[in-house]
């Protein structure tokens, strides 16, 4: 049973989809953290550079 699961998760398409979802979640979290402020409302991610 475990060997079947390993075979499934090591398929190239499954690994690609997992990475895609992982980076999409990171991107969405960053958007929700910094995306809802307008120009005059507090800090923005690039203001300190």
UniProtKB/TrEMBL annotation:
Superkingdom of origin organism: Bacteria
Parts of the chain that traverse the membrane: 20-36
Matches recorded under Pfam families: DltX
Stored InterPro entries: DltX
Annotated keywords: Membrane, Transmembrane, Transmembrane helix
Protein name, as recorded: Teichoic acid D-Ala incorporation-associated protein DltX
Encoding gene per record: dltX
């Amino acid at each position: 049973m475990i060997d079947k699961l390993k075979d499934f998760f090591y398929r190239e398409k499954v690994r690609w989809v997992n990475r895609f979802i992982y980076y999409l979640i990171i991107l969405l979290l960053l958007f929700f953290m910094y995306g809802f402020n307008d120009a005059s409302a507090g800090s923005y991610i690039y203001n300190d550079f």
